[in-house]
Design a protein that fits this description.
The chain is an alpha/beta fold. The chain is built from ten helices and eleven strands. Strand 10 and strand 11 form a beta hairpin. The C terminus is likely disordered.
Length: 317
């Protein structure tokens, strides 16, 4: 059997040429609070959280803000648990600052805010699609091709049916599914994957979802989740003050940076605890050479989501 390897000389030459002459990776802007999250073509970001912590709210916020800030991006959402109507209800609450409860019960007291929120969603609708049943890998792959999606949201991975003929156990099924999802990534698609997490033992020996007990090993069913992603985040449930830290437990391409967040449950919105400054974060300009700085992202999203840009639609860079 012949050996397969590359010599150090050849590897160094290729790496040096790419270092000196290659282009920086394209990374999608997700909003000013999330400049450290590397999501873009050929990258998989994994997000886990206990039930009810807001992981769907977070990834949908990322998805829609990415569409708003990259006007050529197309996204496909595979959400196994929530209807399309429920997902849009939540985004309308966030974008129009109308309480979700009022939208849920169709008690809409502010026509102006409602109209502005609907207009913003309508602007993004042509570049957004939602997978319908069956929630299977085959259907997902066909939909990605048919819609031309460049960003895929899988929410959540343990509930998606894997490839035909995959082993029946939950762990083996997730292993097989992750292997195929990596093929999307290798083909240049960006993946945003939501995972359930398992309980861990707290200091008293009790089974708990407490944030300080969750680790990279907390993602349920399969170590392939840990190995297959490029970066992984654990979202802590919000405390009484709304603080919901987003902890980075893996970053294949750099320093794992935690993100202090506040969750505003009434509007299903995550906000930065610290207000963005006029200065870009360290290395942001070099990593996103073709994208806006955090301050520019904040200004763009303010125009988009708070109505200042309603007449001009989605701003272009």
């Amino acid at each position: 059997m012949s050996a397969s390897f590359v010599s150090g000389v050849d590897a160094f030459a290729k790496w040096r040429n790419d270092l000196l002459h290659g282009q920086s990776p394209r990374l999608y802007s997700l909003g000013s609070a999330f400049h450290s999250v590397e999501l873009g073509p050929g990258l998989m970001v994994l997000v886990g959280a206990p039930p009810g912590a807001g992981k769907t709210a977070l990834v949908m916020q990322w998805c829609l803000d990415a569409l708003a800030l990259q006007d050529d991006l197309r996204a496909l959402v595979c959400n196994v648990e929530m209807s399309v109507s429920a997902l849009l209800d939540r985004q309308l609450a966030r974008l129009a600052s109308i309480p979700l409860r009022a939208i849920r019960y169709r008690e809409l007291p502010d026509p102006e805010a409602l109209s502005a929120g609907l207009e913003r969603l309508e602007q993004l609708a042509p570049r957004l699609a939602f997978l319908q049943e069956p929630f299977s890998l085959d259907n997902l792959a066909n939909a990605v091709d048919a819609f031309g999606a460049e960003l895929i949201v899988v929410d959540y991975v343990q509930r998606v049916q894997g490839p035909a003929g995959a082993e029946s156990s939950s762990r083996q099924a997730v292993n097989a599914l992750m292997s195929y999802l990596r093929r999307f990534v290798d083909a240049g698609v960006a993946l945003l994957v939501v995972s359930a997490v398992g309980r861990s033992r707290d200091r008293n020996g009790s089974s708990s979802y407490a944030g300080d007990t969750l680790t990279l090993a907390s993602f349920r069913e399969s170590s392939e989740l840990e190995y297959g992603c490029d970066s992984a985040y654990l979202l802590h449930p919000a405390d009484e003050a709304g603080r919901a830290p987003l902890r980075c437990v893996k970053n294949r391409h750099g320093e794992p940076l935690d993100i202090p967040l506040r969750f505003v449950g009434e509007y299903q919105r995550f906000e930065a605890l610290d207000e963005p400054t006029d200065e870009p974060a360290p290395s942001t300009t070099s990593r996103r050479s073709k994208g806006p700085s955090p301050a520019e992202m904040a200004a763009q999203l303010a125009r988009l989501w708070q109505g200042a840009g309603a007449e001009g639609g989605i701003p272009h860079e």
